[in-house]
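User: Run a structure prediction on this.
Assistant: Running it now.
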Amino acid sequence: MEERKKPKYIAVAGNIGAGKTTLCEKLGQHYNWDVQYEDVADNPYLNDFYHDMNRWSFHLQIYFLNSRYRQILDILQGDRTVIQDRTIYEDARIFAPNLYEMGLMSKRDFDNYSTLFEIMTGQINAPDILIYLRADISTLVSHIHSRGRDYEGNMSLDYLKRLNKKYEKWIASYKAGPLLIIDGDNLDFYNRPEDFGQVIELVDAQLHGLF
């Protein structure tokens, strides 16, 4: 009997404060997947960015683009299934365009960034499954406040709202591979085992349909 294939690359997408890291950790533990975290703790630009977005927006986006590209290369070259906390597509479809439209990134820098993104994504595969963690603004703000990161204290509600609109537009047009949408407002998968059980059922259904 032929051995059943397994997915190589799972990714969790969602706005700031949606609960991506928590979901990655719990799914990684449940399925014995490795977790690739977003580079936040060692990011040399993040704190500066939240204090002066105009000055540091391009630097931050290039840093994230490079970091996630290297993560994906490691995932595709390895032999373990990996779940990634935020995708390279969110940088280019959500965050960089939003900064450009808000006047916080110049057209020259945005065009340069976009060209680099297109070259990079031509060399990699989309996730075997993309999990989008959908959450409204009140949920995002609650999560952001509860984790107490100093650099996020300057984040405006308008900024979060603009990002959420871009997320919804991107997800509505996403065609690169299988997509699973998780309700982050009504499923408390961190505190309620039964809610996490519902998430597992949804992920299992995707996995069974994938291979």
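The two ends are 15 Å apart (CA to CA).
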